[in-house]
Design goal:
295 residues; alpha/beta; Rossmann fold; 5-stranded parallel beta sheet; 10 helices; 40% helix
Length: 295
């Protein structure tokens, strides 16, 4: 998740964004996103050059906005970064973005790209990830934005960076994932709000619906035919339209809303799809997913 933590100095014309975080978490994508919107971008700038670079940004009319990546590739020099960062932000408006993801996601990304971890190949990738987390912990504590990139593809991450760093209308600052799931497969661990729809009549017991899903019009029509279905959706919509603006004001970057039924095939799928439509109609950026629909 992304959150603001530190107080910023008085606004200045010059703007320096420092990108750091775990290897495989999307630092390159973030740097490219900022470069595309006009930031002067530098990858892996040596620690010792950052003070001079910040002075150039502050004094140069040609490069008033810049973004740099600082990460574990610095080795032992990285220990100097916290003190150096505190000094720099006294002289120029500076924001620190820390990118991370869970161990499984990072390990999978390394496997897919077949790139070695910067800490070497003497130990397993997960061991390197753990060691990197420990080394970066002091820097993470200084971050203005902490972004978990596990949920985002490349395009979604660019949107999040644009909304949080550059600024966008309030509705675009929060990405909403409305998902369905089956309780027999467990509650999605990344859910922020979970709603149990097993109180609704189950289409699974009707032969003609058993092998269909909540996406099928006949199944959706059956579920919607019960007055409690319509009332539930109306009440949940009102609740979400009340809650979401408060999440936005608190700086939340993404919200996962999960609807669960027994198997994740019928009721939860239909309800999630309908709520997704309603939130999109209200102007929010929403993505729909159905975790267990094919199980």
């Amino acid at each position: 998740m992304a959150k603001r933590k530190a107080e910023q100095p008085e606004a200045r014309t010059a703007d320096l964004v420092i990108i750091t975080g775990l290897s495989g978490s999307g630092k390159g994508t973030t740097l490219k996103a900022l470069e595309d919107i006009g930031y002067y971008a530098v990858d892996n700038l040596p620690i010792g050059l950052i003070p001079k670079f910040s002075e150039l940004i502050r004094d140069s009319p040609a490069a008033r906005r810049a973004a740099i990546v600082v990460d574990i590739r610095e080795g032992e020099s990285l220990k100097r970064f916290p003190a150096l960062f505190r000094q720099i932000r006294k002289k120029i408006s500076t924001r620190l973005i820390f990118l991370e993801a869970d161990d499984e996601t990072l390990a999978r990304r390394f496997s897919e790209t077949r790139r070695p971890h910067p800490l070497g190949t003497e130990r397993p990738v997960k061991g390197n990830i753990l060691a990197e987390r420990e080394q970066l912990a002091p820097i993470r504590m200084l971050a203005d934005y902490i972004i978990d990139t596990a949920k985002f593809n490349v395009h979604e991450l660019r949107d999040v960076i644009g909304a949080n760093v550059v600024g966008a209308r309030d509705e675009a600052r929060l990405r909403i994932d409305v998902t369905s799931f089956g309780y027999r497969h467990g509650v999605p661990p990344d859910s922020d709000l979970v709603f149990d729809v097993r109180f609704l009549p189950n289409p699974n017991y009707i032969p003609e619906f058993k092998n269909k899903t909540g996406r099928d019009r006949s199944v959706a029509r059956y579920i919607r035919s019960f007055p409690q279905t319509v009332e539930f959706m109306d009440r949940i919509t009102d609740l979400l339209l009340y809650l979401i603006p408060h999440y936005i004001r608190e700086g939340k970057s993404y919200l996962t809303i999960a609807f669960g039924c027994t198997g994740g095939h019928h009721r939860s799928v239909m309800i999630a799809a309908e709520i997704c439509k309603r939130l999109a109609h209200a102007g929010f950026k929403v993505k729909q997913s159905h975790r267990d629909i094919t199980r």
